[in-house]
Design a protein that fits this description.
By secondary structure, this protein is mainly α. The chain has nine helices and no strands. It has one domain (53-208). It has helices at 3-11, 22-43, 49-53, 56-79, 89-110, 113-121, 128-147, 155-174, 183-208.
């Protein structure tokens, strides 16, 4: 049997690679979100959440996090489909981070010097980023479990993008607990939490998403 005949034989009845069923993906993510919700409930909901939700910083923060979630989801989708260009998703992520950083810097510079430390640190800077990264872990685990059944050709980048996606979702959940309400704080510590989640995703992706 020559090479062409062998290839033809192997290719018979070949179809596209099958990823996990939508029900499986939905079930995994639902469990992960439930675990994240339990973590937030354990931390405790913000007692002034209704008032916070009516403020422009909270609204803009949630819009920013939603943009981060959408762009990172698009990036993950493209990474697990070999041959697709990354498109504008990385630019969208960068612009979203730049927009919040600009808002935070502007707020910091407009404040009196005596208030700037409070704007940056708030009352929870020690735990904010770590809490977001911790809440992101079950979502990240569900994503990596799902992506193992697909075809990512850049494992570390795919893992990092998945970590960013999980971090953005975790930050939205964490907002139900958080009592901070300044752009400067969000730019520093919410971005830090998503960055930690992305770093964990890169490390785990490089190991578990390799072919």
């Amino acid at each position: 049997m020559n090479t062409d005949e062998l290839i033809s034989l192997l290719a018979q009845n070949a179809g596209p690679a099958q990823g996990p069923a939508p029900q499986q993906v939905g079930g995994r993510l639902a469990i992960a979100l439930a675990l994240g919700g339990v973590m937030v409930l354990y931390l405790g909901l913000n007692p002034a959440l209704r008032d916070f939700a009516a403020t422009s910083p909270f609204t803009l923060k949630m819009a920013w996090l939603f943009a981060m979630l959408v762009f990172s989801a698009v990036l993950v989708y493209r990474l697990v489909h070999p041959g697709q260009h990354l498109g504008s998703a990385p630019w969208g992520i960068g612009l979203a981070l730049l927009a919040m950083s600009g808002q935070g810097l502007n707020q910091l510079l407009d404040a009196p010097p005596t208030q700037r430390n409070a704007l940056m640190m708030g009352a929870s800077w020690q735990v904010c980023a770590f809490n977001i990264a911790f809440i992101a872990l079950p979502v990240l685990a569900a994503l990596l479990w799902t992506l193992r059944d697909m075809a990512p050709t850049r494992p570390a980048l795919t893992g990092a993008s998945s970590g960013l996606l999980a971090g953005a979702l975790a930050a939205m959940l964490y907002s139900l607990h958080c009592t901070e309400n300044t752009f400067t704080f969000f730019a520093l510590w919410y971005s830090g939490g998503m960055g930690l989640s992305s770093l964990v995703g890169a490390v785990l992706g490089a190991r578990f998403l390799r072919w």
